[in-house]
Amino acid sequence: MKFSCYKSDLTEALQFVIRAVAVKPMTPILAGIYLRAEGSMLEIQANNFSTGIITRIPVNTEVAGEVVVVGKRFQEFVKNMPDDTITFFDEDNTLSIESGGASVELLTMPASDFPKVKTPETDHSFKIRTTALRDLIKRTAFAVAKDDSRPIFTGCCFEIKGDTISLVATNTHRLALAKEQLGESYEDCSFVVPADALRGIMLRIDPNDVENYVTINYSVRYLTFTFDNVFVNTRLIEGMFPPYEKVIPSSSSTKVKVDTAAFKKAVEFVALISKETEYNTVKFTFGDGGIKITSNSPEIGGAGQNVEAEIDGDDLEISFNVTYIADVLKIVDAKQLDIALNDKYSPAAFTEPGNDKYIYIATPVRA
Predict the structure, then answer these.
(1) What does 26-46 look like in DSSP terms, one character per residue?
(2) Which site in 122, 230, 272, 367 is 20 to 30 Å from 187, CA atoms measured?
(3) What's the rounded Cα separation, in Å, for the pair 36 and 9?
(4) For residue 225, what is the domain's CATH number?
């Protein structure tokens, strides 16, 4: 096998595919990345049996062939090659990589031993614009649980009702819900997709490619994404997603409208102190035409900042884990943010003015 390609194309593809390389492989081959060069295309695969990824990039192939190399090392060397073009050729169980005067040789494994990514049998499918799917993932996946003690909370729930798709994520202390219209109506369904697989998909979608579509096929156990030169097969998370609608407040006694950028800057400033507290706690005082944001640490000291805001309703003092507030402010696109509150013990709802397709819920800290 011998081929050459652009470093940028391969680096981007490997950043995506590496997510399906086994971290603690049962056998060495699962730590590998499969490469098959033929004609003008290089096919790249990784498979850990929970998620399988195939992607393709343009290359110039002189001699067709296939090999498997250790994924992490291969990615590191490709990323650090000095020139824009890289040449690869294999000989005697070794893959040689050359670029701009630098070279490296990596031992290979038999391509015949690699478990090729297969297309599972699926019962249903639907299509969604790639950019719409990217936005749904961006607005929800950050809210999943970080630990896997309860696997159902490490994924995003996909829910289709007619021509509307919703993605929901929660770690039981916060919740993010985003909706989007589909081009047509589909059979109602619900399933939970691992958040890590979704983050990988988001990385691979061009945010400017508004004309492209993703085809999603699913069954009881598996789901596949197909678009451009990408195919992803992932195992769904088993279990019943909780009835999230019960967490969303139906009314509020205090309504707040605040400039998103100013609020974000103030939250990030006070967070420098809150990181030293046990529960990363920040107090928000709503009243007197603004929001007072404060945090105190017995070991470090205290910090505070005032932000102008429109307050409609009762004055209120409420505390949150500041990470839960800072995270949503990173993904809000609107210039202003609406906050709906009831009392110091009830969840708060964060929305964008005029946008009924997104809501974020944060549960207070009892401080």
Answers:
(1) SSGGGGEEEEEEETTEEEEEE
(2) 230
(3) 15
(4) 3.10.150.10
Q: For tokens 């996909």, what's the residue?
A: 158
Give the domain-ending residue among 84, 113, 142: 113
Please write the tens of the pLDDT for every residue from 58-92.
999 999 999 999 999 999 999 999 999 999 999 99
Is residue 367's pLDDT more than 70?
Answer: no
Helix 260-274 with 322-331: angle, nearest 10 deg: 150
Q: Please say whether the dihedral angle defined by the alpha carbons of residues 251, 253, 259 and 262, taken in this order, is positive or negative.
A: negative
Tens digits of residue pLDDT in 229-252: 999 999 999 999 999 999 999 999
Structure tokens of 337?
């943010």
The verdict on residue 195 lying in a domain is yes
Q: How many CB atoms lie within 10 A of CB 129?
A: 20
Residues 271 and 225 in one domain: no
What is the DSSP annotation of 107-159? EEE-GGGS--------SEEEEEEHHHHHHHHHHHGGGS-SS-SSGGGGEEEEE
Q: How many CA atoms lie within 13 A of 362 on its CB side?
A: 24
- The amino acid present at 264, given as its one-letter code, is K
Nearest residue to 153 via CA among 162, 144, 161: 144
Question: In the chain, how many domains are there?
Answer: 3
Full domain range(s) for residue 206: 124-246
Rounded CA separation 362/170 (Å): 10
Separation CA 255–CA 315 (nearest Å): 10
Looking at the structure, tell me whether residues 97 and 206 fall in a common domain: no
Whether residue 225 is found in the same domain as residue 138: yes
CA nearest 201: which of 241, 232, 246? 232
Of the three residues 113, 134, 161, the one that is the final residue of a domain is 113
- In this structure, the answer to whether residues 155 and 99 fall within a common structural domain is no
Residue in this structure with the two tokens 């004609």, named with its chain if needed: 39
Please tell me whether residues 51 and 154 are part of one structural domain: no
Specify the pLDDT at position 239: 93
